[in-house]
# Entry
Amino acid sequence: MAVFVGLSTMDLTIPDSHSLKEKRQVVRSILDRVRSRFNVSACEADQLDNWQRATLAFAVVANDREFVHECLMHIVELVEGDGRVIVEDVSVEVF
# Structure
């Protein structure tokens, strides 16, 4: 049986954030929405103390490579569609 692990990282800018509290509200909202909709692992991985930048990471494990890739791409679309953030960079890898 094959097991595939997918990892996506996204560098975001949050232009309307003027404090860490505002940033964390936006980040928490995105992470909670992704977790509930896709049942994946998600976290803020970098830029923790920068109030207008965030790096989010998402991980998916499944036995179908195509499913893993599609799931990560749907997550990217969801985050890109959030008007509160600007997606600066995206990385999607399936191992």
About this structure: Residues 20-38 form the longest helix (19 residues).
